[in-house]
Amino acid sequence: MSADMDTAAGRARRDQASDRPDQRPARKRTFSGGSPLVYAIALVVVAVTLGPVMYGVLGGFRTNAQLAEDPSGLPSPWVWSNYAGVLAADSPFWGYFLNSTIIAVVTTAVVVVFGIMAAYPLARYRFRGREALFMVFVIGLLFPATVAIIPLFILITQNYQMGNTWWGVALPQAAFALPMTVVILRPFLMALPTELEEAAQLDGTSRIGFFWRILLPLSGPGMVTVGVLAFVGSWNAYLLPLLLLQGDMRTLPLGVADFSSEHSADTAGVFAFTTLAMIPALVFFLAMQKRIVNGLQGAVKG
Amino acid sequence: MTDTVVRSADRARARSADRRPEGRRGRAGVWRQRAEIALFVTPALALLVAFIVVPIATAVQMSLYRWKGFGPMVDFVGLRNYVSVLTNEVFTDAVVHNLIIVAGSILLQLPLGLAIALLLNRKMWGQGLLRTIIFVPYVLAEVIAGVVWFQLLQPQYGVIDTMLAGVGLHGPEQGFLGTPEYALWTVLVVLTWKYLGLAVILFLAGLQGVPDELYEAAQLDGATWWQVQRRITIPLLGPTMRTWGFLSMIGSLQLFDMVWILTGGGPANATTTMATFLVNEGTKRQNFGIAGAASVVLFVIALVLALAYQKFILSRDSKEGGR
């Protein structure tokens, strides 16, 4: 395979060289050009990646009889009843959707507000113990929620009296997202120019006023990035909601899992339910793609 | 950089001091600053204490008692819970399963992710769309991906068995997830499908950081595409790959959602992970002491592996003077 790629790339390179002999090649053009082989591999990758998802989407348009008769066929005829059933007014889908949304919004709001507040003095105040305080958050990165899950379950249901509530899930999720948030936001705040503070102080603005009126508006991009990461994390979370939420309080991932085990005979229904549960995350991802990817890359570059 | 920021901030404060006496760094100023810091940091710290520090401390405490979840912890058993966790074959197997997932994820996703990233790192039609598509599985909840795959992998009726039958092969009778010999590997394949996109996106970002001049120089020297990748691109991608490996390892050690949905840890504990073990002990059997000990062991294993990774693999980056 490598030999094939060699020649293909080589050919592309030679073509290009003869095309534009004196021009400096543009960024990443050096070994550019899609050879048929590259497109073929790309198609395989797309098929494997999207295949399972598309199968679920199409499966929701079939009947169980169709699925049993020819598992790998296309819908014929297309039926809407599976999707309509999930979206009916009395379907539990809407309740799960509401719970997921509220928990994700509360988690995101708490993470962003508490995170930027904590990052501000860590980035722009000078005081003894600042690095030690920052280390508290760095060490927090080492404790995954899984390790604390059983005691969390006991503490939240018995001691904090927040079992089966939105807050009971949102607050611990926010707590476990905070270390990463502070670690991402601090360098972001440090990078803002010092002249801002000087100017604010000349104008007689206090440091708290500076935080509100200057720092917050300028940190928009950083806050959106950590907010998106917190939102996606909360929206997809399973373990903590699994232990803490029952009945009408369940979130979408719990709803999907329970629907799939309760209606295991209704494969088409499961596909329809699962597909509809994916849509919010996919729409959100498409809208926020840049932010999500930047956030993850920021985390890696750390 | 921190220092310069801080120092000039101080200078600014000193400069404005004559105009605003309350801004001077007197005793009152110091207290005022402390109060401000406390105001800003306390909410976050309170949350960390209530939902991370206290639960972790409770996990350690629980691990030393025999406790069924109600009433005070009184039945102190010392390290006996640890002994029974570490001699429990289900748990030691779970540790092995986690390690297989750690190694398997890296061994599968690193070459595949690298190959796809190198492939996409060229000007081609539909590149943006391709990048979006490849990232889709990562954005889906593990549970949702798991439920879809569970249906695809149904024995006989599932589309995967049907497709195999189409080419004359037969899946195992109990299905890939129902046969102990295949179950863990099947979970690994599904996880690879789910997380490959993350590797690709991160590697692509790393490739953006490789300076064009290097490619041009190599091209002038007559290097082939393959030589360029092997001698320039892949070595320069080192820091990105190493950091990705770290994230992947930590994630694999905490694996829960996908296993819980696909197999629930079965069949015959063939796919139990440390996390499914401790959730099972804690919620289904009310063995909180055992669950606590398993939590602590999970944390220690994760910490030791993280430190080892830091020492032996990530430290290369700082030695090389990388990012």
TrEMBL record, chain A:
It is found in: Cell membrane. Belongs to the binding-protein-dependent transport system permease family. GO terms for cellular component: plasma membrane. Residues 1-29 are annotated as: Disordered. Residues 12-25 have a biased composition (Basic and acidic residues). Pfam families: BPD_transp_1 (PF00528). Residues 97-288 form the ABC transmembrane type-1 domain. It is a multi-pass membrane protein. GO terms for biological process: transmembrane transport. The lineage of its organism: Bacteria, Bacillati, Actinomycetota, Actinomycetes, Micrococcales. It comes from Krasilnikoviella flava. This is Raffinose/stachyose/melibiose transport system permease protein. Keywords: Cell membrane, Membrane, Transmembrane, Transmembrane helix, Transport. It comes from the Bacteria. PANTHER family: ABC TRANSPORTER PERMEASE PROTEIN MG189-RELATED, ABC TRANSPORTER PERMEASE PROTEIN MG189-RELATED-RELATED. InterPro entries: MetI-like, MetI-like_sf. The chain crosses the membrane at residues 37-58, 96-120, 132-154, 166-189, 210-235, 268-287. CDD domains: TM_PBP2.
UniProtKB/TrEMBL annotation, chain B:
Keywords: Cell membrane, Membrane, Transmembrane, Transmembrane helix, Transport. It is found in: Cell membrane. GO terms for cellular component: plasma membrane. Residues 95-309 form the ABC transmembrane type-1 domain. It comes from the Bacteria. GO terms for biological process: transmembrane transport. CDD domains: TM_PBP2 (cd06261). InterPro entries: ABC_transporter_permease, MetI-like, MetI-like_sf. Pfam families: BPD_transp_1 (PF00528). The chain crosses the membrane at residues 37-60, 99-120, 132-152, 182-205, 288-309. Residues 1-25 are annotated as: Disordered. This is Raffinose/stachyose/melibiose transport system permease protein. It comes from Krasilnikoviella flava. The lineage of its organism: Bacteria, Bacillati, Actinomycetota, Actinomycetes, Micrococcales.
